[in-house]
Amino acid sequence: MVFSKINWKKVAITWGIPLVAVILVGFLPQYGSAYWVTRVSYFLMYIILAVAWTIFSGTTGYISLASAAFFGVGIYAAALLGESMPLIFVVLIGGAASFVLAFIFGAITLRLRGIYFAMFTFGLVLLFKELIYYYEINIEGLRGRFVVLQSNETIFYYLLGIFVVTMIVAYLIRRSKFGLALQSIGQNEEAAAHTGVNVTMVKILTFAISAIFMGAAGVIMATKWTYVDPGVAFNLMISFTPVLMAIFGGMGNIYGPVIGAVLFAYIQEVLTTGELQKYYMLIFGAVLIGAIVFMPNGLIGVIQKLVGLVRKWRKGGSVAQNANT
Amino acid sequence: MRILEGEKVTKYFGGLAAVSNVDFHVDEGEIFGLIGPNGAGKTTLFNLISGAFTPKSGIIKFKDKKISGLSPYKICRMGMARTFQEVKIFPAVPAIENVALGALFGTPKPMSPAKATKEAGELLDFVGFSVPKTIPAGGLTMANQKRVEVARALATQADMVLLDELMAGLTPTETAEAMELVSKIRDRGITVFMIEHVMKAIMGICDRIMVLHHGVKIAEGTPKEIAASKKVIEIYLGE
User: Would you say the pTM of this structure is higher than 0.80?
Assistant: First the structure.
């Protein structure tokens, strides 16, 4: 937490390794094939969604299924504004629009708890989809819209940039007193409120912040897909997949959703394109059930356990050495 | 001087009056006890004071300001903290950060994380918490969880604490320690308002006691007066 003293070795690990990793990934378009650039772009999209989702839902335990709504807002921002202004502004506007929307809906729905909140956010996506279908067909006379195409590299670097910002924000929130407040809300909201935490404000603000990144990612993905309609923009899988990825990767550490998103997306790709295509859903279901039953803290939980064991073993070794001398 | 005052405080659950027309006051620096049989409305009254509920009618004033209707976090920052009948801690958060939360969010003026942590450590020592402070609160014994809860309340720099059955579920030794702790809290200049079922404890340390029955105040006075009150004895032992 923020309360501990600066440990430079720890700083090197928490900042150095990610920095090197980001730079290495950043050079991908120079040495990798177009196929890999595209594939890694999709990984980045899922990582952004999973990490952004975890910022709010992972700590507070309020399961939001509204990711697709904010992602879709970004997509429509790209469709409406993509031609008239530079991409960077569209990304900022898409993020800001998602923030405002999440703030408003947070203010209305965050009084609900548990399953009711999840259901409402789920309904929100459907509502958006139907409303925009209605508007487009009856008023604009359209079904879908074209979006200005961007090059693979542009898409890749924008997603990498959004990813880096998302990670930094997630890290800062987790490390700050704000993060402690979120945790306390997740573990006992009533006690948090009686200890001076303005729980409503903390929840709404965090929900809105997490929506920024979903909206920004939506803007970029729209420029990849080039044609969008409400069915594409408000696809419920965009709500569910990041939740599963975050659970699969584990939420006890900031890298949990990252590892979960990459592996999950990779497995999905292998299963849907290879010979196992027929059995995709079957295997996928089995993997998920296995993950939930055998790894309650996700992949990151397993890794942390292993690291703990190794440390214990090394410590034990050094104690034995000291005893000998 | 009166620090807390309630006038005709009333709260209904459906058609049932859980608290009905209760007048009460707590003087600054005293230990004020609240007793009554199960379902008398004691915890409901605490919930009304701390802001968890809003009274249907009546008014509650803290330091001469109306607090009924305010959000719990605002009341907390005004200097009123509480503990809960069923301990409410943050199980996965280290004990010291459970307490630091109070110092970070519940005080009238914000303070730095470093100072909050230092304060939290000192308060854990004050309440007699003797195991490592970084243990997640969920893994502590009941007595230590209650200590964490009390320390968290004190960390908000409260002028008054509401202690809801602090001694329930404790061993006789722990109960004695808890009684001592309550006196120590008062010695810091903090007013204590406590609900308690352990008669020995409440009779021993309270300056004044109020008795509720079916949501109605039936008696108020010094421990001696309460112990001698025919009405109170009837309620507790039957006619």
Answer: yes
